Amino acid sequence: MPRWGMVIDLDKCFACQSCTAACRMENNTPPAGPDQTGRDRAILWNEVLAFVHGEYPKVEVLLVPRPCQQCDKPPCTYVCPVKATYKNEDGIVVVDYQRCIGCRMCAVACPYQVRYFNWYAPEWPAGMREHLNPDPEVAPRPKGVIEKCTFCIQRLRHAKEKAAAEGRPFNAADYQPACVQTCTGHARYFGDLDDPNSLVYQLSRSPRAFRLLEEMGTEPKVYYLKQG
Amino acid sequence: MSHLSRRNFIKLTGVTAAAVAAAAGTQSLLDHAGQPWAGMPAAAASALEEKRVRTTCALCPSGCGLEVRVVNGRAVKVEGSAIHPVNQGVCCLRGQASLEMLYSPERIQRPRVRTGSKTDPSATWREVSWDEALALVAGKLAELAADGQMHTVAFLHGDTRGSLRSVINRFMSAYGSPNTIFLESAGEHAVRMAMFLSQGINGYPVYDVNNANYVMAFGGNYLESSRHVIGALAALAFMRRGRPRRGKFVAVHPRLSLTGVKADEWVPIRPGTYGALALGMANVIINSGLYDADFVRDFTFGFEDFTDAVGASHMGFKRLVLEKYTLERVEFITGVPTADIARLAGEFATNRPAIAVMPVEPDGLPLYDALAVHALNALVGSIDVAGGVLVQRFPELTPWPLVAVPTVPSLTQPRLDAISDNPFEPLAPELLAERLAADTPYPVNVLFLLNTNPVYEHPANGKMAEALLKVPFVVSFASVPDETSAHADLILPASTFLEVWGDDFVEGTGYAGVSLRQPVVEPVHDTRNPGDVLLALAAALGDPVAQALPFPDYKTLFEHRLSAIDTDWEKFRENGVWSEMVYFHAEPGSRAWPQVVGRDRLQAPKDGRFDFFARELYAMVAGQGDPAKADLACLPHFQVPAEAGAATEYPYVLVTQGLITHPRPWPGIVPTLQESYGLQANMKWRAWVEMNPRAAKALGVQSGDRVWVESPQGRVQAVVRLYEGLWPNAVYMPPGMGHRTTIRWGRGSQAPAVIGANVNQLLASKGVTRVKVYKV
Q1: Which position among B61, B493, B574, B593 has the lowest Cβ density within 10 Å, counted as fewest Cβ atoms?
Q2: Which of A8, A10, A23, A25 to mutate to test binding with chain B, by most B CBs within 10 Å of its CB?
Q3: Per-residue pLDDT tens digits for B532-557
Q4: Which of A40, A56, A199, A202 would you mutate first to test chain B, the one with the most B CBs within 10 A?
Q5: b/e for B414-438, b at 16 or more Cβ within 10 A?
């Protein structure tokens, strides 16, 4: 069973946010609009964050794309009182929207703040539902549940089905999340972290590799490579 | 733990079962009990009919290949086409969000005619059929043609893709009007003119970043809003991590944009002084003998002082630069320390191939800035070499049908935009507005508007809107109601690029290529491709217009034009793209060389020499006034740019630069782009003005304060954001905001509302704009 992981090379990431948009279109997260965005309720599973340090003219801006870190030891799953969020058999942390009671414990427990709460049933202006992805995994979530990045599990299913339909074994290279596919700087890598021949295995052991808040002991499966 | 795994397993089988159930035609098991996710397309519950359609994006001049996932006739996901040479499988956020444009509730759904007076704000629209709308236009045009008033029909257009621009030109000249006006952005115009005046190529430059060792982007926002932005991003990634030697990328701009953040070095500079910095670097490179002496001697003109055919002596680039652009003076002008200028110049000249990217900015004297920057490319011999500045090639197409267009007197009437004596100056839109409003040189009876929104882009204090009110019949091809179409008499709504047939030239690669655009979905509304509309009008008008464009529809037209391409058409259609895939560099002095230096020159000799001294300009200014001034006018130089507003009253310089989240041709609201708008400022759905904290402190304003930003042109409201990455005497406002929407975007939001503020209301059309900032 592959241990799915992602490597993001910050030297090749130009913060173009195409990952953010690809994620939205693939996973049917609703546009929040001015009012809700102002209340920090926008749901973007894969946001790019900017951190500005220093004083003019010596300014450092750190731009970090932040999907769910898909921890091997996910604190969100430990605190869920109803076991609605769990690591599935592919090692991907997902939410069962039927079980979720909306207590938001997981949102508090997640050190990366990548769990998003549906304060109301998602809304699209008239006509704009037409472009929603019809895959059942990403059906718009109801009011009162938490949602988050799933490494596009629907694409994993599609890849497995396609391999089966073509009568060949499923290969780790068959599957990549939407953000990886669309990355304009080719900065994202995806694959099996346990396969020594995979690019993600090798890059995750690069001297440039680091993980966010490594000291929390969450063992994220998303690695970053330092810029420069 | 084992208990949990079992539960997980059961859950997973649930998910798989749901997928199977969905395919089998039963209701998805993932539906929340009692909470049906109403409005989800019924597709999820019935059998999915899925296909992937290749087409070509039209949202920016990159023209990327797309592969769209279409389920049950609905476009549900846009992805990059892996076999397209421009984007190679990736897709930016604008392309991704194009589905929000396709299905936008703001779209104009069928042709509409204004009822009542244009000046009456409560006037309404009457929807009409296409037949009625076309008959109305054709009737007007035929009526004017009968009176010999063809020149009073004008066509204003912005960036167009593929053959459409030729169709417009052909339509208008066959009809008998000289007034086809391209509203090019001032910055892009300057870069194109700099290419023409120095290198003799009338086109936008192509930068071969993939193979460069040193890239210095002056101004603009190379990684966010340049013409070939997608190619630039991939090329920079390749330059860094895809090859043995890592190149260096330097960004020069008053504001630390994403380009500056992601560059290896950011050089903050006083707004509008890029040319001076380039000339200061040239000074260092020439002084220390680091320039490509062989190339400069054999393949350039005007480096040394020279004597012309009539015996008059002229100043060369070298003397000008050495005398006028000493490091101290350049530091004084630009604010870049002398040590940095010298270091950058040394790095640039010794890490060849090196590229100086010309500024695409309206600030300063854009033409001379671009000329000065491009001179650096010639100094280090980066003209048409791998890792240098390339010339975009285009394929040979089947010629247009030959028609004997009668020379009608209306064709030789003065053009509406023949404003400046200097043909190399960009069109001044506010002067055009004044002329339209004042009936100079003659009243305009019909005005077409395509892919342009001049009332938004060049409001000129309301003059543009006034001008449109003055024209009795304004025909707009707008897709959504925008600032300009609000003043139209007839709207012929254009389809989005996802609904039409079309062609597009591959650009930014150097080598020639063509992409195809095909309908991904059936038109969502009763809209048409403007190309088809023009062809229908041509047919309705009869000869000679019909003769000039004898095609039933735009698809037939471009297929005819492209039929000259020698390729397997079946593959071409399937792939959606054909290209040469290889760029052949011209060896200096070879037979191919005139194709990259001097090709398009008119007055200057086509001798294969790059002009430091622009002979094309000299042909125009020769013999007029002071010879020393004429020399200077032909050389890249720095002049203090005109400033709109006095520094005492308006202490800050306004800078603006395009963002990657700005959907250039789409004036409607694209919610996903709005939600990604201001990355460094963390501002979304709102107007903001960035200030350096020192400037804000001096003014006593804080982050989050609502302020007026006022220039001599007008004032807008915005929220202050403090940003250290900004020249302390500058303020920044983003472009592309300030459109009015009638849709309620998201819960709790207002409608109708203006989202953001239109920075164009502040900008002067030339030079540098100064503003003052004060609390509301």
Answers
A1: B574
A2: A25
A3: 999 999 999 998 899 999 999 999 99
A4: A56
A5: eebbeeeeeebebbbbbbbbbbbbe
